[in-house]
Each structure stands twice: as C-alpha cells, then as structure tokens.
Design goal:
Elements lengths: L17 E6 L3 H18 L16 E9 L2 E13 L6 E9 L9 H15 L4 E7 L3 H6 L2 E9 L2 E8 L14 E3 L6
Parallel strand pairs: 4-5
Antiparallel strand pairs: 1-2, 1-8, 2-3, 3-4, 5-7, 6-7
Amino acid sequence: MLRTDAICELDSAFVPCEFRVKWADGGWEIHQARALRRRVFCEEQQVFEGDDLDAIDAQAQTLVAVSALGGMPDEVVGTVRIHAADDGDGLWWGSRLAVHPAYRKHGHLGATLIRLAVCSAHARGCRIFLAHVQSQNVPLFEKLHWTALRAETLHGRPHHLMQADLAHYPPCHDPLTGFVTGPRRIA
C-alpha cells in the first residue's frame, strides 16, 4: 500500500530513520506544531473547540519533534511548549504535549520532548518545572521522574499537577540542536 499524501511513493509502513527533537526555529515548524495541536486537542480529544491557542502561546517556546528523510527535515510529528512563570523565580511550565497518532509508538517522541523541555528550561534558570498532565499520561511521567502533587480537573477532564525531578534533567544549553532519537524496534 502506498501513501497517497507523499511526493514520492513510500510504503505506508515506512518509518523515518530518525527524529530531531529541538526548539522550533522556523515558521514552518511552528505552523505544523500548531496544526498538530489542533489535530490532537481539538479533533481527536475534543478538549477545545476550533483551536487551542491561548495567551500562553505569546510567551511560550515551542519545541518540536521533526521526522527526517534522507537526513533532511520532513514534518513535525510531535510538539510541546514551555514558558517561565511571570514571577521570575525559576518556576517553569510545560503544556500542550502532542504526538501525531501515527508516531506514538516510534522513537520515544513524547519522552524525548519532555526531556528537552525540562533540560532546556533547567539551563535557563528553572528551579521548579510543573505541568498539568492528563491522568492517563501520569504513568509515563512517573517513569520519567515526575511526581504527582495533586489531582485536578481541567477543561472537564481529569489531570494531575506534576513536578519534574530536576536531578534527572541536566541542563541543555543547545536546544536548537536538541536531541536525536530513532524508531523503536518492535519485535
């Protein structure tokens, strides 16, 4: 079976050989990240109607997972945003973690996005990193050294306020280069 949305005719089972997880530095990356967020949070999960953009987007840094074909960036397949709290006291937040449905089992993309989010904030003076995590994703965050602080309801859905253990997230001073991860081999 061939992909009908591709310029070249790749088999539908094709998986890119690598993904770069980095801070978005191009307009096309931000545009595709926002489209992915709409797909996940508006269409798939129906958390928001129409669009999920809010006031935080004006100050947040967008991070992306970009698939690569032949070593060249191809498409944004994951995203998250981070921002420092207004108080300037080292409190940072992560939000809007989204991975394209076709790539959720490839390359540990969610975990790598979380890692870069916390490591890059840590390099910029983060002392506390928090996120409101949908309850079904709490086990993933706990595996990544996060602690649930309390249960909450946001947007009519169960969430947990969680905190990253910064001891497991060394500062990343080059988030534009970020991290490279490959597809997970499924036996």
